[in-house]
Design brief:
The chain is mainly α. The protein has 19 helices and 2 strands. Helix 9 (313-338) packs antiparallel against helix 10.
Length: 573
């Protein structure tokens, strides 16, 4: 008995993500304690109650921080004489410094304590999420560099805070990206309450940074609207009124370096909003995993891998959609940057979307039907990452759906018979339907269990055949036969896959490429919802700006998050 117990303790020391069936030894597992539940007789019950209490109090901390920051932001928007942007930056800088202190303490202290990380969540922090954190983090750093350069050029009319704030932001982005890259899978087992409060404080700070970016994402829009006004005045037309902004008093001098900083800031601004949202999602999973003990039933025996196998038509159709979309996007950008976009370019843009969206919707509906016909069981195990994916998909889709309904009301109330208005109206209806059908397909696919694919079995057979081939002397004829077998292996694996799994892979790959092009277009500057002027003239400049600034970043985040979900569906198929 003593030898068996010692072996179990040794396995806890050396095997992360694995636990014995017997109750773990208290020397390696730190059960949570809370003063409200110190009288509980059962250690496990006291641990569960303490975990719920820790989550509650850390959640209340984040809620109060978000409400405080939101009050500052709202006061700045509605009464900028009492609360200025510089004061909002000071508040956010204080929060970022506190987050930096906790992150550094976690990296150098908490995570290095004995038995701190006994388990790692294999589902948390997939490579595409961590890669997105690094990618958008780099773009956000460049954005702040351009912000510093732009503010330095206009130092005579700008506050010193506009240089200090992005400098702290760069340090915060670097430290946070390092934490998420190396520790996103941690199931921390020590200092539970401190870790939960630190994570929730960091989540609240990222949410406030996102809200600030959304409310101030009018910088490049205002510059473009000023250019439109200059052109309209030059042509003798009455320009569309927009709210006064004190930034117009501080104009960029006519120098190349200042224009460079200005254009770089405009181009990279959308990446900052997405970086904040991605970080919030990863930090939330870390918060849910604090104190979590994963049994051996939760650990996958085989890790699914992405392989370009068993798909033909999906990549071809998706590649065609991407190529055509890039051409449409380039033509749109050429006109949008040179002068006011013409009516024809809007018709071309919306026509492309009206053709693409029904194809995506039909593919998602077919995929959902195939899921219903499958006999594969649902995965009912507790998975915080999957639960968060579902919440993010549903929540981020509300951005595009909300904008579409506002557009539908405005277009129906004005002139729906007009060609451009009819295209925008059709686009809005189709986009709502596409978001709903795609969400159903992805969520249903995420809840399907993994299994060993036929391609994996064929690979094992090929390896065995290859070993036999290496061990014997082959003639030229036999070598030719082996080469022919290898050249036909892809066709064999494609034909031997069941039609359901093959169709799911084709559909998933097609939707991945379609979502990529629909992510690229608004991310890099295609904003027809604001530039066509139809909804803006109906709701007014300020109201439509708020709607677009809330809906557009969520729509961009939705497309990027859908790509990750669809890749997961492709792998599980």
């Amino acid at each position: 008995m003593s030898g068996n117990k010692a072996s179990k303790q040794k396995s806890c020391h050396h095997c992360k993500g694995r636990s014995a069936e017997a109750p773990p030894d208290t020397s390696t597992i730190h059960y949570e304690e809370f003063w409200l539940y110190r009288h509980c007789s059962s250690v496990q019950q006291r641990d569960r109650q303490a975990q719920k209490a820790g989550q509650l109090f850390s959640g209340l901390l984040a809620m109060n921080v978000v409400f405080l920051g939101s009050a500052f932001l709202s006061s700045m928007i509605f009464n900028n004489m009492a609360i200025t942007l510089a004061e909002v930056w000071i508040l956010l800088s204080i929060l970022k410094v506190l987050c930096l202190c906790w992150i550094i303490y976690y990296l150098l202290g908490t995570s290095r304590k004995p038995h701190a990380v006994l388990h790692r969540d294999s589902h948390a922090g997939p490579i595409w999420i961590r890669g997105s954190v690094l990618l958008f983090g780099c773009f956000s750093i460049l954005l702040n560099v351009f912000h510093i350069g732009y503010s330095t050029m206009l130092i005579q009319c700008k506050s010193k805070v506009e240089i200090v704030f992005p400098s702290i932001e760069i340090l915060f982005i670097c430290t946070q990206a390092y934490l998420l890259w190396h520790h996103s899978k941690d199931c921390i087992q020590v200092q539970h309450n401190l870790t939960r409060c630190g994570l929730m404080l960091t989540i609240a700070t990222n949410l406030l940074l996102w809200l600030l970016a959304v409310t101030n994402d009018t910088f490049h829009m205002e510059i473009e609207s000023q250019l439109r006004e200059v052109e309209q005045r030059f042509e003798g037309k009455t320009p569309f009124p927009h709210p006064s902004n004190e930034t117009t008093l501080c104009t960029c001098p006519n120098t190349t370096i200042c224009k460079f900083f200005q254009k770089g800031y405009i181009l990279l601004y959308p990446f900052n909003t997405e970086y904040c949202l991605i970080c919030c999602s990863v930090l939330y999973v870390m918060w849910k995993n604090v104190g979590r003990r994963i049994s051996h039933h939760h650990v996958p025996h085989t890790k699914p891998e992405f392989k370009f196998q068993g798909v033909v038509f999906g990549p071809l159709l998706g590649a065609a959609a991407v190529v055509i979309g890039i051409c449409v996007f380039m033509m749109y950008q050429i006109q949008a940057t040179g002068s006011a976009p013409s009516r024809q370019i809007f018709i071309m843009y919306y026509s492309y979307c009206i053709v693409l969206l029904p194809l995506m919707s039909v593919a998602a509906v077919i995929g959902t039907i195939i899921h219903a016909l499958e006999k594969k069981e649902l995965d009912t195990l507790k998975n915080p990452t999957r639960s968060l994916d579902v919440i993010l998909l549903m929540g981020a889709a509300l951005g595009q759906i909300g904008m579409c309904y506002f557009s539908i009301v405005a277009l129906v109330a004005t002139n729906p018979v007009d060609l451009l208005n009819s295209l925008i109206l059709s686009y809005s209806v189709l986009l709502i339907f596409q978001n709903i059908t795609q969400n159903v397909f992805i969520i249903d696919g995420l809840h399907r269990q993994h299994f060993m694919s036929y391609g994996k079995e064929e690979e094992l057979k090929e390896e065995q055949n290859h070993e036999v081939y290496d061990q014997r002397q082959v003639s030229m004829l036999e070598l030719g036969q082996e080469i022919r077998k290898v050249s036909l292996s892809y066709i064999h694996s494609y034909s031997n896959l069941s039609w359901k799994r093959r169709a799911l892979r084709e559909i998933s790959f097609f939707l991945v490429l379609c979502n990529i092009i629909l992510w690229v277009m608004p991310t890099f500057g295609a904003h027809p919802a604001f530039e066509n002027g139809l909804e803006k003239s109906f709701y007014g400049y300020s109201t439509w700006f708020v709607i677009v600034n809330f809906g557009l970043p969520l729509g961009v985040f939705y497309r990027m998050h859908s790509v990750g979900g669809l890749l997961e569906v492709y792998i599980t198929a």
